[in-house]
Amino acid sequence: MDLTSRVDKEFLPFINKPGRFLGNEYNVVRKNPAQVKLRAALAFPEVYELGMSYVGFDILYHILNANPDLWAERVYAPWFDAEEVLRAKKIPLFSLESRTALSQYDWIGFTLQFELTYTTLLNMLDLAGIPLRSADRDGRFPLIIAGGPSAYNPEPLAEFIDVFLLGDGEEAVLEICQTIIAAKEAGKNRQQLLLDLAGIAGVYAPSFYKAEYNSFGDFQSISPVQPNVPKRIYKRVLPQLSEKNYPVKPLVPLIEITHDRLAVEIMRGCSEGCRFCNAGMIYRPVRQRSVEDIIHQSQQAVKDSGFEEISLLSLNTSDYQDLTWLMVKEKMLSAEEKLSFSFPSLRLDGLTGEMVDFVQTFKKTGFTFAPEAGSQRLRNVINKNIREDDLLGSLQMVLQSGWKIVKFYFMIGLPTEKEEDLKAIVELIQKCKKIAREFKDVRLNISISPFSPKPHTPFQWEKQEIPQEIERKSRYLVSRLENERIAVSWREGFASCLETVFTRGGRELGGVLEQAWRNGARFDGWNEGFRWANWESAFEKQGIDWKGYLKPLSVSQPLPWDHIDMGISKSFLQKEKMQAYEGRLSADCRDSVCLGCGLQRKEFEQLVSCFKKEETAQLKSDAIRRDEQSTTQPAAASFGRSTKKRDIPQQLAKKKIRVRYTKTGLTRFISHLDVVRLFDRAARRAKISLAYSQGFHPRPKLSFGPPLSLGVGSIAEYLDLEVEMGREADFQFKLNPALPAGIQILMQKTIFAKVPSLASAIGQLTYETELEDLVLPPEWLDSFLAQSTILVERQLKEGNKSVDIRPFIKKLEISDHKLVTTLIAIEGRMAKVTEVLESLLGKQGVDHRNFYTQRTGQYIVTGDKVQEPFEVI
Question: What is the pLDDT at residue 644?
């Protein structure tokens, strides 16, 4: 049996969320392996829902697959239940697109977003049958590459990763591929290939460098052991954000993901200079895309995806200099589509009424504020130049516009923090609560995160609070803030400290990392996965004092990442550290003079233009010109109060239709709620206008029959929906091409009279289970049906509940070597076919998940009359 067949039959039916492994997303790329020169696996050491939400992953997927010689596929970390099945059945970790074992690729590229994913990375290598350590891998195994924000201190992973890509990857990833192809064609060995890769700007091959430690085990230096590699590795900088690098046919998941929307990057980098912020330092310089490029991507991507929300992505969207003009153009787009917009990252002092009106166009989700500190003194220390009046005024503006959920992010353990600063958080939230009382049903969600000193920031030398102190401060805030209208969440202290250890550590941590993984560590960023005991024993076995990594560092002390140059000079970071302790703010260099952060050095001067005043002045001039132009736009594209007074066009008449459709193949592993979202997006792609509900969260008016159990197929699913009058005739023809394989509309019929909902009307269901080689003795069925009570445990939100399913079973019979099951509804309740099969076969030692089951009929029962749903309209 090939790997694809094994995955379909032995893996997917046995895990809790098989939708993570289907690889049948809309716009997925498939190629003929024989027609490409190189195959890559883009790996994300987190669950599918998080990995699919990362916009950088989508960009690299698009860039690589745009090249006809390359095929990039994806792989995400399997959750605990999926890992257990893979190991038990000896199925290697595989890619989603082609179900190829990871060990068969030319290279695997891991995205490192977070230090607590490192054990998960090792686990993925092991599940793929790939040796963990670089020294143990030869040419038979893929090259292991890593990049992302956590790669900027690569040393804890140096013994496991072949090469790191530091900085922007859009151009470098293609150069890496070309170098690997050339090495393959020239017959070079692995060492020769690594040397070639080390010559690419932004690429670091750690095996060509040696770390030195003193007799006390303290880090001293890193230096090359090969003459042809650079002593210092400079990050890769993409001079301009080119339109060609952004996908207009983005991957559209068939299951719900964490950020389930179209993410459009509008700007990269930030010059605000928050002293704790790693991203604000390492992603410099600031580069912004043109409004025209953003609009083009938005229009095409919405058309080819069906997404209903666009997230305008940057580290600080309010710094985008053409934002007013961009909002005007985007709102003109939303006039044609029911679209909503979001700004995932905003400075409070940059929030305007126009921005609030813009993001409330179609639906309202939560609004997020990040003051980080409660007192003005501490906000000055961290260079977060936000005044309390800014926050309270912004909150008032947001609540007046109808938002009901507001999120606040605070940090504890920041440098110079005092007890008064904790009290200031409480006082600030109390003021927010007072404002919120004026509005109905408002909820404040407070998130508390411990400060962790990050490399390449002014606070990289600062201490990390010990776990007990983190716990004390967190509980102090919870006890004074949490009530029925305020929810408080916080991070576990030991997990935060572990993050700091691997943020600051060097190669000496490689043994700890591997030992912790062998102890069972993986998914350490999750409460379900993190176990401090796994790490405590690993540190002890390796003779490493983890508490030493939490202490403050001397500015003269060598650091494990000193050989990595992210563009920000050490002297600038030291100056900013001194500014912090003096409580002095540093201006945004885009609004003031150049602060000399380090990007002006000759190594970067050809790549950046942030310090060229004439260009900055021209950008501001363009922004002012577009602001003036925006005032001449028609009322339909305006913001603020005027939008509420404009004439609202009369909605077109709708007609209700009923359709019968299939849910077979891989789509049987998609949940019912995901199918609802799937039809909405398919209709958008097909340009079919559906009727929507009213209120803050408009939903398409879709009415389904009884939901299927996960993993059960169907050739008889029914759906009622409303479409624009006159379009119902070609509904089936237009929608089928936009639906995934396995879901196809078989027939449709217009509903002219008022009818009950399908869920309430359908009273009988039939299923067929293919028994294959299983011989089901008649006495099994007889004894099963002879029972007066058949109890099953059903998982509900409030806990497990015993349910008697015997009254719902009308008939069980064998026909053409298939088990035919007929179930009935009683007072709107039904049994699940999987419950029946588990009760029948499980007691005989047979797992029903080994057999394919599908629904073959749904019926409306009126007295003695049994009719299909189309017969009653």
Answer: 39
